[in-house]
Amino acid sequence: MLDALDRQLVHALQVDGRAEVGRIAGVLGVSARTVTRRLGRLQGTGAVRVVRMPDTRAAALGALLLRVRVLRGRVDAIALALAAREDVPFVDVMLGGQEVSAVVLGGAAGRDRLLYGQLPATDAVVESTAHAVLHLFADASAWRCGALTADQEALLAPPPPAGPPPEPDPLDHRLLDLLAVDARRSHAALAAAAGTPESTVRRRLHRLAAGGLLRTHVSVDPRLLGVGVDANLWLEVPPGRLAAAGEALARHPQVHGVLATGGPTNLMAAVFCPDHAALYRFHTEVLGPLGVRRAETAVVARAVKRAGVRIRQFPG
């Protein structure tokens, strides 16, 4: 597990993935040298990666939550095939080794080819279920590991978007693509990679951030944060209580994603828990009072792709 300072650094990056070292050091009360050394170790070992978060908020109403049941022994092949798609930012293998869960973005044509052509043509697929996203209450970028105080988090928080997102031009897209792999790349490194002056990069990133297009996500093995269980909860809530339940779950510190869906259930929540006993308490103490009529729990065995980036530990 990460020590207390490392956990604070993770939380700081969750608040602002591009926060400068000096700013983080000032808030945490340590030297900039210590922050630089610690972050270098965390990122150098692959324990922590900071990437630009795909704009799931804009695409949410066109997204699908996909559950694919596969033949035993074929799960890795299906998971890797889904992870290779640019329109699939999240892929997990569920406990038991016979189900893959994925988020599918993009246009209807690509989704239709996947659902009605590619998946049925694969003899490894036993069954697939697609849940349309009707409303996004919170996504993975909103989750915090709980290592900072509210005051520290407020000091690190970037200013909210100042207006509607700009329409990115080719240079903007190039910069966003570079940040999708490493959101902490310096202005100088981005300028060199994009072949443009550093002053231009600074100006463009300021414009993109002001429009809300520089959201970041910290990819970290939750076990390093004391989280032993990652679970997807497929919930059935009375329609009259759906909005209140979704908003309450979005505020809960253990929830790292919650969406209203179509299909057999009408709410999905992704939950981090220290252990299975805590997951049980989440059902009885959190879901019960929200009026949840039915809950199906699918525990994540392995994360394959998060926020558009492949997880290194996954084979293949």
Automatic annotation (TrEMBL):
Keyword list, A-Z: DNA-binding, Transcription, Transcription regulation
Ranges that cross the membrane: none
InterPro entries, per database record: AsnC-type_HTH_dom (IPR000485), Dimeric_a/b-barrel (IPR011008), Tscrpt_reg_AsnC-like (IPR019888), Tscrpt_reg_AsnC/Lrp_C (IPR019887), WH-like_DNA-bd_sf (IPR036388), WH_DNA-bd_sf (IPR036390)
A family per Pfam: AsnC_trans_reg
GO-annotated molecular function: sequence-specific DNA binding
Any Gene Ontology biological process: response to amino acid
Keyword Cell membrane: no
HTH asnC-type domain location: 168-228
GO cellular component: cytosol
Record protein name field: Putative AsnC family transcriptional regulator
Natural source organism: Kitasatospora cheerisanensis KCTC 2395
